[in-house]
Write a structure and sequence with these properties.
The chain is built from 12 helices and 12 strands. It is α/β, with parallel strands linked by helices. The strands form 3 sheets. A 7-stranded mixed beta sheet has the order 3-2-1-4-7-6-8. A 3-stranded antiparallel beta sheet has the order 10-11-12.
Length: about 325
């Protein structure tokens, strides 16, 4: 296997994030194998295509832009306002990839890769539809979809896909069939669909290859439920950091120990001006900011002007 096939899905609004993810892969992957990117999109403009192609100056790679027909997915619901229709593009991959692609790695763009991607790509999935990482809210979604006991509900941001097996099961039509039969219980969009179709046919991968935001906050149940070794690994040896949830590094409100990794790699793309747009968004927060958090006594609200607390209120439990 002399090639690493990677699929990313984007639109013109998310092009800076897509480029940032590509840079993080190129910078942290030591392989001599050819890396081939397939960019699923609904019509990237020439400016964004040229900027992404300029990343070849960092390290040579192949890249193909695969245009999606949005009408194919227009009936599928969008019930998370921070997630675009581009998330559904991955359901069409078996129709879009060349026949000589037998294995590929699908990655979301709200991530940075801090490990060597070849280590992830080399997992043996010959007997599976995919290699996946358990989702941070596995138990809730597993019960809702009534999945088999041996299946771990996964986060669809990282998917190591056995394309040969997906072609055998008529993957795209299988996905739409599952949606039509289960639309009433689907809440997590294409992630639910993929879990339903892949039920019982996944290799469970180490959490370091898709670390969601809750795992980095020590007060969450997700973090508390990890064993000591995994807790150490996610901070010292993260493979892929996934900025899950509503708030991202480029959002106005975001606390994350690896937040600056996003900006580190973005600065190595042609999208450096994206940072200044982020800074402008921060100005209102500097002028006036409301904070809310809990302690042992109750809920504390603080109001700040120019970073100075002008009013503080404690609401007892």
């Amino acid at each position: 296997m002399n090639k690493i096939n990677i699929i990313l899905s984007t639109d013109n609004n998310y092009a800076p994030q897509c480029a940032t993810m590509i840079v993080s892969i190129l910078k942290n992957t030591k392989t001599n194998k050819n890396i081939c990117f397939y960019i699923l999109n609904d019509g990237l403009n020439d400016d964004n295509i040229q900027k992404i192609c300029k990343l070849k100056n960092i390290k040579p790679f192949d890249i193909y832009f695969l245009k999606i027909d949005k009408d194919v997915i227009k009936k599928l619901p969008l019930n998370r306002n921070w997630i675009s229709a581009a998330t559904y593009y991955r359901l069409l991959i078996t129709d879009l990839l060349p026949d000589d692609v037998h294995k590929c790695l699908y990655l979301d763009c709200d991530m940075v890769c801090l490990g060597d991607i070849e280590e992830l790509y080399n997992f043996n999935i010959d007997n599976y539809y995919a290699g996946t990482v358990q989702d941070e809210s596995d138990k809730i979604h597993h019960k809702r979809l009534n999945l088999s006991e041996k299946h771990l509900y996964f986060n669809a941001g990282v998917l190591l896909l056995n394309i040969d097996k997906l072609r055998e099961i008529d993957f795209k039509n299988k996905c739409f069939e599952y949606f039509n039969q289960n639309s009433a219980i689907i809440k997590m969009q294409d992630q639910d669909i993929l879990n339903g179709v892949f039920d019982g046919h996944c290799l469970n991968l180490p959490i370091i290859w898709n670390i969601g935001t809750p795992y980095f906050h020590k007060f969450t149940e997700q973090y508390k439920n990890l064993d000591i070794k995994t807790k150490q690994e996610i901070f010292k040896n993260p493979g892929i950091v996934h900025y899950t949830g509503r708030y991202k590094p480029w959002s106005e409100k975001m606390f994350h120990p690896f937040k600056n990794c996003f900006w580190k790699y973005l600065f190595q793309t042609p999208y450096k001006n994206y940072f200044w747009r982020y800074c402008i968004k921060q100005i209102p927060l500097f002028l006036y900011k409301k904070e809310k958090y809990s302690d042992s006594n109750g809920v504390i609200k603080k109001y700040k002007i120019f970073g100075i607390v002008v009013f503080k209120k404690l609401q007892l439990y």
